[in-house]
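Final report, Chapter 2: Outcomes

The project's central promise was a pipeline that accepts a single protein chain and returns its three-dimensional structure in a standardized token representation, suitable for archiving and comparison. That pipeline is now operational. To close this chapter, we reproduce one record exactly as it appears in the project archive, with the input sequence first and the structure output second.
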Amino acid sequence: MYKLQISALVIVAIAVTGMATGAEVTRIIVPDNPAPGSTFDVTLRITGLQVGGIVERIPDGFTFVSTTHPRNQTSISGQNVIFAVLNETLITYSVRAPAGDGSGIFRGEWYDALNITRGDTESKRVNVVATPSPSPAAGTPVPAPGFYLITGIVGLIIAAYYRRRRGNE
């Protein structure tokens, strides 16, 4: 009986491992140029990873705020956020940008426990830039492009009228 249970477990493990394709984790950051002190979202799109983990490295100066991932599957250690993955396809977490201008690179790695493989997620740079204040010239009204055409035609009509009038005198 014991050998039958072990055989069944081995067959299930082989079947599950055989079904798994190459794991991939893609990072999406919106917006990738946040305003200083603002909160923005980082989404991890997960494919081919049934059981494993993801470690996200948040750049210095940026602060982890929250996640939609279950608390009992999330751990925070310094600038690292660790997610236990159990058949998830998306994980979203929020980060606060530093108060001043600057930039940072979000990095991460994943581990596939079924296939005993690991890989890196593509690094993404985030630039924190204060929006420039509008210059006074920005508020100056600009005539519509057709305005010059119309005034040119009116000018020609007036010139033709005066020329014709002088010719009649």
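Archive annotation: The two ends are 125 Å apart (CA to CA).
This record, like all others produced under the grant, will remain available to the consortium after the project formally closes.
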